[in-house]
Amino acid sequence: MSRLLHSLSPHPIDLDPSSTTHPFLTAPFFSPLLFPNNSSDARDHCANERTFLSWLRLSVYMAIVSVAITISFHLKHEPTDIEKRLALPVGLLFWVLSFACLANGFANYVKTVTKYGRRRALVQSGWKTQIVS
Q: Residue 27 phi/psi, 5° resolution?
C-alpha cells in the first residue's frame, strides 16, 4: 500500500539522458520533470512552454469562433437561410481544427521535452521550416 501511495505522491522526477523511458510516462504522473541546466536548457524549456501556450491560445480562439459560427451570431440582421444551413458544418469544421491545433501543440511539446531530456539537438530546418519562412 505504501508503494502505491509513493507512486501517486508528487515528487520531482530526475531524468537521466541515457534513459530509454518516456519522461511523461514515468510515475508519479503529476510531478515536475527535472533536467540538468547545462548551457541554455532553461531558456529552451521556457521557449517550448511558450510555444505550447501559443498553440493552446489558437485552439481556444478557434473554439470560440466555432461556437459563434454555430449559433449564427449576427449583430445587425437576421441570418439568411443559406447562412443557417452552413453554420453547423462550418462551426464543426472550426471545432475539429481547434482540437487539431491543441493535439499538434501538445504533441510538439512532448516530443521537444523528450528530446531535451535526452540531450538531442533540435535543428530547425527542413521542409516545414522552409514553408513558414
A: -75, 145
CA distance 51 to 42: 14
Per-residue pLDDT of the chain (133 residues; tens, 9 = 90+): 555 555 555 555 555 666 666 666 665 566 666 666 667 777 887 888 999 999 999 999 999 999 999 887 666 788 788 888 888 999 999 999 999 999 999 999 888 888 877 766 666 666 766 676 5
pTM: 0.68
What grid cell was written down for 74? 449576427
Using alpha carbons, list the distances in angstroms from residue 46 to 51, 57, 99, 113: 9, 16, 23, 11
Chain-centroid distance of CA 14 in Å reads 23
Residue pair 42/107 in contact by the 8 Å Cβ criterion: no
DSSP β-bridge partners for residue 13: 33
Q: Using CA atoms, how far apart are residues 101 and 112, in angstroms rounded to an integer?
A: 16
